[in-house]
Design goal:
about 100 residues, mainly alpha, two-stranded antiparallel ribbon
Length: about 100
């Protein structure tokens, strides 16, 4: 399991995906199975409070080997972020928008 941002990220927070993820994908030549989760809504990165609820981990279709690093990284981020955002919303996370 690799956190492509280098660490867990709070729901709604966006961090650049690390290029090492793409390097591993390219060097290993194996499919990559993207995973989305809502765990950050229930179990924050900081603090000891745990919100009641069901943690959901969703496995997506594998990304086949052979893509360029840029193509892979774009596909990975799109799939993981879209899935994680949807799961967080289902768990009750409300995104705060700034005007």
């Amino acid at each position: 399991i690799i956190y492509p941002q280098g660490t867990r990220v709070a729901p709604g927070e966006k961090r650049k995906y690390k290029q090492g993820t793409g390097a591993l994908y390219q060097e290993l030549g194996q499919p990559c199975v993207p995973v989305s989760a809502n765990v950050g809504v229930l179990w924050p990165k900081r603090g000891i409070y745990r919100k009641p609820g069901t943690a959901i981990v969703e496995f997506h279709d594998p990304i086949p080997p052979g893509l360029s690093i840029n193509e892979f990284m774009e596909r990975l981020e799109t799939v993981v972020e879209t899935g994680s955002d949807a799961l967080a919303q289902e768990a009750g996370f409300q995104r705060v928008t700034k005007d």
